[in-house]
Structure formats: C-alpha cells, structure tokens
Amino acid sequence: GEMSARALRKLRGEDALAAALAGSGDESGSSDEEGDAPPPRAINLFGMLGDEDGEGDDDLSDSDGDGDRGAADGAATAATVAAAAASGEGESSKRKKKRKKKKSKKGKEKAEEDPDSVEAALRDLNIEPVQTVVPGAGDAGTGAGAPSDGAAAQQQRTSCLGADVHYFKADEEMRRLFGAQTIRDARAEDHAEAGGLRRRLGGAPAAARRGAGADRRGKAAAAALRATAAQHRRRKCVLVNPADEWPRLSPSLGLTMRSVGDAAPADFGGCGGRVFRYEHSHSYASTQEQYEAYAASGDPNLIAMLLRQNPYHVEALLGMSELYKSSGEGTAAGELLERALYALEAAFHPWFDVGAGDCRLEYSIEANKPLFNALFRQCQLLNRRGTHRSAFESCRLLLSLDPSDPMGALLMGDFLAHRARQFTWVLQMVEEMGSKCALLLMPNWALTVPLARLRLLAGDGGEEAAATHAAGDTEEDALEQLSHGLLLHPYMLVRVAAKARLDEGDARWKSLLARAPFAGAELGLASASADRLSSVAAERQQLLWKAPDAASWLRRAAERAADHAEGGARANADWPSMADWVAARDQAFPPGVPNAYTHLNPADFGDNFLALPPQGLNEEEPEGDFADEAEQRAAIEAVMQQQALAAAAGQQPDVQEGEGA
C-alpha cells in the first residue's frame, strides 16, 4: 500500500539521524571526497516521537554517549540530539498513550494527509483555501471570469452585498431559536402533511412509491432505501437542507452555469462584478417547452405528471409552489420551492460564490430568472416562518445577483435587516451604495435609516453593534433625519399609520394626521412611481412601526415636521423650506412620468398569501342550496389554479388587493 506522508517524513528523519550519528563517530581525518560532500539537511527529530516500533527511543538514548566523542564538525549534531533526547523524556508518556490508541484501532489505518501540513503548503504557495464549496455541474473553465484574488476579493467579501453563508438555512436558525426537539416534532407533522404531495409529484422514497410490494422484499429493501437516503445527504448545500425523501438529483439534469467574464464597472448598477449565466441542455429545453404548454392549458395535473417524470425541473417546481401557496398550503409550497433552489444550487459554477457579493446574473436572460424568482419567494417564506436572519441573507444574495434591483430587493432589504436586528447593515448600505441607488430618496429607506440609528442608540443591536456605531450620534440627530424623511414623503406617514392602525383610539395621531403636510398628502401625490414605492414600503414596514417605542419616535418626528411645515415661530430655520422638499421630491420622482415600478406588486411584499380572484364569474352571492355553493366553489378553485399557473408561467393575471394584502 501507499505510505502516508507523515510516515514517510518519519522514515526520512530516522535515516538522516542514523547518518548523522555515524558521521559524528568518525575520526577527523576523513577522505577528501567526504569533505567535499554537502552538509546533511536539517533533521526533524520531533517527527520520531510518535514512532510505533520504539526504535527511536533506542537511538535517542544511545546518542547521549556519542555527543562528547565527536570532533568539531559533530559537536552541533550531538548537542541537537541531546536536546531532542531531553525533550523525548518529557514526551514519553504521550508516546505510550499514542501506542494504546493505535492498538485499539485495528484495521482502521488510513493513508491521510496531515491537515496542518496541507494548510502550511497552501500558505507557502499563497493560495487561499476556498471558504464555500458548492457542487456545480458547470464547466470550470480557464478563460475570462476567473475570480480575483488578494485585497480586492477580500473587500468584496466584506461588502454589504456579501451574504453570510452560515445563516442561509432556516432549519438551523429555528434550532437556535426553539431547540432541536421542537423542530423535530414540527418536522414530523410537516412530513405527514406533505406525504401526499411527495407521492403525487414523484418525491416519495422508492419503497413508499412501490407500496406494499416493497414491504414484501423484507429488510434488504429497507436497508437499500436507507443507503439511498444517506446518498442523498452527501451533497453539501448552502441554500437549503435537502430532505432524505426527495428524489435523487440526476447529474444529467441539463441545467448548468457558465462563466461569462468580468462586467464593466458601470454595469449592474455601477457595481461591476463577475458575470455568470445559466444554460439549458437540449433535453432540458424540450422539457421547458412542454411545461410552458401545460401551464398555458391551466391544468395542474399535467404539471404534476411532468414533475413525476422530471422531479427537478425548476420552472415546474416554482409553478406548482405558487399554486400551492395560492391555495393556502404553505408547507407543500415551501418544500417545492426548496427543491427548486436545490436544483439551481447544484448547477452553480465552481467560481460562483454566494457569499462573495460580486457574482452577477443578468436578469434579462430567461434562463437566469428562476434563481431570482426562487430567492424572492424564499425571502417571503422565511420571513413568514419567523426565520428573519435567513430571510435577510437570502435577500442580500438576491440583491447581489443584480444590484440594479430588478426584483425590488431594496424595498424589503431594510425591513428584513430590522427584523434580523442587523441595524448596522442598514447604515452600511447607505454608506457604500447610497450614491449608486439614491437610497435616502426612496420612501422606505428615508424612514428605516433613522430608525436603525435610534435602535442602535437604544442598544437593540447588541454590544458589538453599539461599539461600531458612530460615537457622536444622538437621538436628536436621528429624530431630525426622520423628520426630514417625513417632509420628503409625507404620504408615508398616512399610509404607515393606516396599515399599522396607529390612529385607532388615539386622538393625538388623528390630530397629527390632520395637520400639514400630511393632510391631503396622498391626493397631492403626482408621481406614479412614488405612489407605487410608498405603497410597497407601507405594506412592508407596518410591523416595524407597531412597536410602542418606534411609534413614539415616529409621532415625535412627525410633530416636528408638522411644526416646520406650518411655519411660524415653531419652524426650524436651519431646515430647508417646504418648497425645497417638494422640489427635491419632484426631481427624484418627476410627475407625469410613466410608472417605472409596474412590475412590483404591493401584495407580493406582504405577509399574507396572494389571493387570486375568480375571473369571468359573477361577484353576486350564489343562490341555491349547499350543493350549488360547493359546485361554485369548485369552479372558483379551478380558475384560481389556472391563474396561478399563468402567473408562474410569466403572465400577469389581474390581482385583487384585499384588506390584508
């Protein structure tokens, strides 16, 4: 068998030691050839301390008598050997313990590389170990797009766009929050609830799909099933934890990722980065065409049949997930969504590092859109589950794919950061990305940035966050910034107060909303883009301002804004006038310009599931007995399924915004 590197080093050390001891005992009158020979290499005597056969002990003990007999050229060798022997006496007990451990491990010896030596070799070669290894089916390639190294790569990893890969998985966050036993019990209930889904979509284990026939095969079949499940677990994933009951992911899925090259500094919202793109094989493209035809038919049974044949077709998984979500089956929708992310991650290019913050995908390419859609839905799903840190990191990854933000990640990133208590990230985003995205001009960031400052001043971010916060910041300065945000977007206070129900039973809020500039602010909103952004922001932020301390800060800042807007002695002479605030708003969101955010639906940013209305049906109350109502309900559900599939296929059905949307 092959000899391990550690044993080979020990053997070389023993040979060198024997040669040195022999040379120290020779007389000084050696031959000319020996004098011309190069000096022996440095000896690693400590490598012999773990010798198994004990010969090293004898050599060390014999060397004590050889040190005082050598000539001048052997004195150094003798002194070194004596020092090694002295240290060997102190290590004798350790050698005995090592021998006992080796005797107890019969038949389990493996030729392994020393981890310390491997890391030392990497450092000698100036090679940084890869922090995140994601299995990818794409071609590694050697051309353009190679990852940058050195300080630039480290700066990208520490930027506000670089997600923390340790917090992607919601299961691990739930274990930290609720304990492992609680999670196991909840998972057992979810497993029973989603059992029918796995059988319908081909996701059940082989024995479950075969039914009673597998039971007749006895314990051998059960052992094979457990081996197959263990084989499923061997793939290391970053985004999700694959379940043992999921179908096996075939290497010939047909979904790969290719490195395109480096983007121009002005691309992707002025952030540049390394560009990648997904690619479909001929078989995957054929399955995609089949899925689009099934989705256009509006029959979910056809989609289920396609998933039984192709259990990891990403678009079909996302379509069925949306269908189950619209039907109120959140567990089934979440499982299908995670399976889609699992397939998308398996296709990652080896250079596609989700934690670097500089890996880009062009949203305009159809093959790239499923990852954007899956991450957006994952953010909403994780937030509903209460795993806010996982949702926040998923949102950071979504934003890093394309910092120009085609999915509206900036409209929920600040909210998720507050829910995850990552207040310093909000301020970091303004510092690093504020000039590129004009964050403080957006309605949501104009309010959440001063709220983050107030939270840090109150100590809500922890000691570490408080230490990194600016020492000279004060509550008065943060409240002043909040007042400025309300003067820039006065309609935000009206909508947030309505969503959070701050004015219910509180006369102070009612009188405040009746003052300028809040009274009639919505009617005076002339920009369709600002209208859409403020609607999304109010839908998303309502939970942040329901807290008593946040509501108090908001009311105090609104009172100062109202005093300034009304003029008189209570107006702040150091603040810009109301005309200046209106001019700034009109410059950022010009009136009369077409809405640039029509693709963003406020209902998609809410915590409630999207309810699709029945199209083509009478909105009047049904007449007749219970049987007629049941039939009409079945027809309504059929239309809802068709609309959900149409939405998943890329069409835009009409959406009715309910009160909770």
Strand content is under 5%
Number of strands: 3
Separation, N- and C-terminal Cα atoms: 68 Å
Strands of the widest sheet, in order across it, are 1-2-3
* Helix share bin: 55-70%
Radius of gyration: 34 Å
Major sheet summary line: 3 strands, mixed
Work out the helix count.
31
pLDDT averaged residue by residue: 73
Shape summary: elongated
Uncertain regions: pLDDT < 50 for 5+ in a row? 24-36, 45-92, 94-98, 100-145, 148-158, 203-216, 610-630, 650-661
Structural class: mainly alpha
List descriptors.
661 residues; mainly alpha; three-stranded mixed β-sheet; 3 strands; 3% strand; elongated
Care to describe what's here?
The chain has 661 residues and is mainly alpha-helical. It is 57% helix and 3% strand. It is built from 31 helices and 3 strands. It has a 3-stranded mixed sheet. Helix 17 packs antiparallel against helix 18, helix 21 packs parallel to helix 23 and helix 23 packs antiparallel against helix 25. It starts with a helix and ends in a 13-residue tail after the last helix.
